[in-house]
Design brief:
β11, α8 and β12 form a beta-alpha-beta unit. 46% of the residues are buried. The chain is 31% helix and 21% strand. The protein is of the alpha/beta class and 314 residues long. The strands form 2 sheets. It has a 6-stranded parallel sheet with strand order 2-1-3-4-6-5, with helices on both faces. It has a 6-stranded mixed sheet with strand order 7-8-10-9-11-12, sandwiched between helices. The chain has 9 helices and 12 strands. The two termini are 37 Å apart. It folds into 2 domains: 166 residues, Thiamin diphosphate (ThDP)-binding fold, Pyr/PP domains (Rossmann fold, 3-Layer(aba) Sandwich); 129 residues, 3-Layer(aba) Sandwich (Rossmann fold).
């Protein structure tokens, strides 16, 4: 099974047998968004609509369905196009967010993090949308995140946005450690516990965090490993407590943004643990942020371990 097949399976399961509208561009034609939306048209309880590319209208359609108590999934080819619906996510949602909602409205946006695909493929940071609209978002890069987050939230009343990693679509789902979803919203997932460092992945940086965790294990060190799929995570106490215990914190965030939730975590951790050693790994922001790039966040493992005072074993 590939990662995109796992996502497809979990989103299908979330519809249960409840009549659900599934819509978006090419959701049941061509590649079906690289397989993400394949097969919904085979489910008798799903009404599938292939739409035009008017994202502002499409975001609004989901609100209309929700107000009429009809569950829906809006699948988007890439996250950048959600900018065209930002007024709906802010103005319309603010107008109705406090009404009682009985059904879910799920927006599933593919994050183009697999390389340069033009100027409309440079936005990979779902937290920016959540910051503006206060809509819960979840970035998904592993099996544990897919199962814990989708199973909890895709069936719940109200609106949320799922961002899924395109670069991992054709890879086997990442299975690592002994994942444990923390908090009622599974906004934080712990994969491992160790005494030597605390590693935290934000946005879609879990593969890099896993690489560092493995390197530490290779050198005889044991680190704790967390991911934060929730863009509005409000319960990071387990991470803060772990960092206070290990006295070493590594935060890896591959979001191309100057407004990163990971910055707030670091500030809180430093305030709570003044002698904390912190290594922050993030994309360098430049005014030319839309320029072609490899969309990879490469780690210098020897440098990271040196900064932590751990060094590399011979």
């Amino acid at each position: 099974m590939t990662f995109v097949e796992l996502l497809n399976q979990r989103f299908k399961a979330a519809t249960g047998e409840t009549p659900t509208v599934v819509y978006g561009q090419n959701v049941s034609t061509g590649s079906c968004l690289s397989g993400l939306s394949r097969g919904f048209d085979k489910l008798e309880h799903c009404t599938v609509i292939n739409t035009t590319n008017s994202e502002a209208t499409l975001v609004g359609i989901g609100f209309g369905l929700m107000l009429r108590n009809v569950p829906s999934f809006f699948f988007m080819k890439q996250q950048d196009f959600l900018l065209l619906g930002i007024e709906q996510l802010t103005g319309t949602w603010n107008a109705i967010r406090h009404r009682p909602h009985t059904v879910p409205y799920n927006i599933v946006a593919i994050t183009v993090d697999s390389g340069w695909e033009g100027p409309q493929s440079c936005l990979n940071h779902l937290a920016d949308f959540s910051s503006i609209s206060r809509v819960p978002g979840f970035s998904i890069a592993t099996r544990a995140e897919a199962e814990a987050v989708i199973d909890r939230h895709a069936t719940a009343p109200g609106l949320r946005i799922f961002g899924v990693s395109q670069r991992l679509f054709r890879e086997p789902p990442i299975d690592y450690g002994a994942p444990e979803a923390l908090g009622a919203d599974a906004g934080v997932i712990r994969y491992a516990e160790g005494a030597d460092a605390t590693i935290v992945a934000f946005n879609l940086a879990f593969p890099q965090a896993m690489m560092l965790h493995r390197e530490l294990a290779r050198t005889g060190r044991a680190a704790s490993l967390f991911s934060v799929p929730a863009t509005l995570a409000d319960d990071t106490d387990a991470i803060l407590a772990d960092a206070a215990r290990t006295r070493r914190l590594v935060v890896i965030d591959d979001g191309k943004s100057v407004n990163r939730p990971s910055t707030g975590l670091i500030a809180t951790a430093r305030a709570q643990t003044p002698d904390l050693q912190v290594v922050e790994i993030a994309r360098a922001w430049t005014p030319d942020a839309a320029a072609p790039n490899a969309d990879e966040l490469a780690l210098d493992l020897p440098e990271i371990l040196a900064k932590l005072g751990l060094g590399l074993a011979a």
